[in-house]
Design a protein that fits this description.
With about 90 residues, the chain is mostly beta strands. It is built from two helices and seven strands, in the order ααβββββββ.
């Protein structure tokens, strides 16, 4: 995770204007948080992280074009309870 942050400028925005322009969040079923960072530098043009703090599983279906950066479960689309998954859209 530290290496991902170091290599991608999207985790280093300094102003509220930059954050408002390049960072977005959504939630699903009031359980799953989707965090999206767009960036001009780095290996990925967009990084999307899903966080599941609940005891329910969740299916992710819209990430076919994205590379899996971090996956704490074997399945690409299954988001286990109390887990996270990070995807990157390559340039």
């Amino acid at each position: 995770m530290i290496q991902l942050r170091k290599e991608n400028g999207g985790f280093k925005y300094e102003t509220i204007q930059e954050v408002n322009e390049y960072v977005g969040t959504n939630h699903f079923d009031y359980r799953i948080l989707r965090y999206c960072v767009k960036q001009n530098k780095g290996k990925y043009q967009e990084i999307v992280a899903y966080f599941n703090p609940s005891y329910y599983d969740f299916e992710i279906n819209d990430m076919d074009e994205y590379e899996v950066i971090y996956n704490d479960h074997e399945s690409r689309t299954y988001l286990a309870p109390i887990s996270m998954k990070i995807f990157g859209l390559k340039r």
